Amino acid sequence: MSPHPSSAADVRQAEFHFRCIECGNVFQTASQNFRCASCGDLLEINFPAWKKSGPNPETLKATWLKRRISTCAADLSGVWRFREVLPSLENDEQVITLREGNTPLYELTQSARITGVKHLLAKHQGMNPTGSFKDTGMTVAATFARQAGFHWVGCASTGNTSASMAAYAARGGVRSLVLVPEGKISWSKLSQALDYGAVTCQLRTDFDGCLRLLQELVLRAPVYQLNSINPFRLEGQKTLAIEMMEQLGWKPPDHIIVPGGNLGNSSAIGKALIEMRELGLISRLPKLSVIQAEGANALVRTLREGGGKRLIPVQAETRATAIRIGNPASWKKAVHVLQETGGTCEEVSEVEIAQAKAEIGAEGIGCEPASAVTLAGLKKLVKQGFVQREETVVLVLTGNLLKDPDFTIAFHRGELFSEEEDGDAKRALAKLRRPPMVLDATLDAVVGALERVEGS
Ligand code: F0G
After folding, report:
1. Ligand 1 atom nearest to CA at 267
2. Per DSSP, what are the bridge partners of residue 128?
3. pLDDT tens digits for 349-365?
4. What's the gap in Å between 88 CA and the centre of ligand 1?
5. 448 closest CA partner among 413, 434, 439
6. Phi-psi region of 234 (alpha: psi -120 to 50; beta: other; left: phi over 0)
7. Residue 264, pLDDT above cutoff 80
8. Could you give the CA distance from residue 239 to residue 82 in angstroms, rounded to a whole number?
9. Is the pLDDT of residue 10 over 70?
10. Rounded to an integer, what is the distance from CA 115 to the centroid of its chain?
11. 200-256 per-position pLDDT tens digit
12. Rounded to a whole number, what is the distance in angstroms from the first to the last CA of the chain?
């Protein structure tokens, strides 16, 4: 086995530049806020050499497969394994990695029955090192931050970005600053940032307020921002889709369904799909659809009321705190990839989210509330006929079950919703609940409990 990262003879890592998504201006370097110097819109990373001749798709597939038995750090990463389609590094051995990616694609047989879809899978990004999809983006962005010579990185977060950033910064010997909305992120996520040594500020505002402040801060202080406005994050997150296609034998599913918050992840997945088709890695595009919580539905409203042309921000409120975002930064990128892939956008209620989360849990898989919007959304898309029963669907589960135990326990104890909120779903929810029982420590008490459950 090679001690050095392996490369195919005729494929190199990709030379890249930054391109404004609005005016198309191209830049060799990006400013601290990752915005276009001409019009102020977001930048994306492009690979101009691919226009002339992209890398050979069969060579890429063979190279990536070969790396699965390599022992060097960059090959063991499920992100850097695909480095020919990522921005090029000065040196492969500089990567900051926790062996992110390499996440499972599970069959969801019970949920398939519930939704009526024949072939339903879950790409579980909650199986990443810090428990969320953020790690795939963070390994790339943190590596470039260190390569650029920064001593501080920073992010605004609903919890997962901060946990991930703090871990990668610590691994890379860089200090990290976290801005989170006070009282609005789960303790698990907050505890991760603390344990990994981040300087953590709980601000008396919401996520959107934290992000606004960070945008100003990075223009004043030498802090490298690691929110998904940073296009290096999205490059890393692209690998979720590449790895998924590899797991499916390069046969695209009909639909990919992803939760939407700040809309970086959907943009990254869409970019990957479009690039994979351009490079000849896949022959057609799956439809990429985004699901939001009803109380944080800026993209839904932007598409329905604004025709996808202007953002309609909302005052966000949802128990799925990871996606409690009202002013999504990457909305334009997301609109573009939904239109390009023929996907759609839907919203789901708090009860629908909780029910779907319990259903995914009952498959022995589990996820955090924000991830469960995907299953709840799929039910709606099947009813609407947008997803056909014989089609193959992949749900992207973005966060681990252990990320938000308070939500799970409140649900099972029946304390998450009021009687009225349960509404029509009362019986379905009751069937899913498994409240813990406090009993005397006697055999009779435990046998009695078993009998009651059996008889119910
Ligand atoms: N699912 C989970 C578990 C998340 O943590 C997030 C976002 C999303 C979905 C939405 O992804 O923002 O790319 O559309 N969490 C961010 C954070 C905002 O700070 O952890 P998105």
Report:
1. 13
2. none
3. 999 999 999 999 999 99
4. 26
5. 439
6. alpha
7. yes
8. 7
9. no
10. 23
11. 999 999 999 999 999 999 999 999 999 999 999 999 999 999 999 999 999 999 999
12. 57
For ligand 1, atom 11, which residue shows the shortest CA distance?
261
The pTM assigned to this predicted structure is: 0.96
CA distances (Å), origin 429, targets 330, 391, 416, 425, 426: 34, 28, 11, 6, 5
Ligand 1 center–CA 264 separation, angstroms: 8
User: Which pair of structure tokens corresponds to residue 418?
Assistant: 């009021």
- pLDDT tens digits, residue range 389-410? 999 999 999 999 999 999 999 9
In this predicted structure, what is the pLDDT of residue 9?
Answer: 39
Q: What is the DSSP string of 94-163?
A: G---S------EEE-HHHHHHHT-SEEEEEEGGGSTTSBTHHHHHHHHHHHHHHTT-SEEEEE-SSHHHH
Cα separation of 306 and 314, whole Å? 13
432 and 372 Cβ atoms separated by less than 8 Å: no
158 Cα nearest atom in ligand 1: 19
Q: How far apart are CA 193 and CA 169, in angstroms?
A: 11
Say yes or no to pLDDT of 4 above 50.
no
Q: What is the mean pLDDT of the chain?
A: 95
CB 159 less than 6 A from any atom of ligand 1: yes
Kindly give, in sequence order, each residue whose CB lies less than 8 Å from that of residue 272, ignoring residues fewer than 6 positions away.
238, 239, 240, 241, 242
Compute, in angstroms, the gap from residue 172 CA to the centroid of ligand 1: 23
Four-CA torsion 237, 238, 239, 245, nearest 10 degrees: 140
**What percent helix, strand, coil does the chain show, rounded to 5?**
45, 15, 40
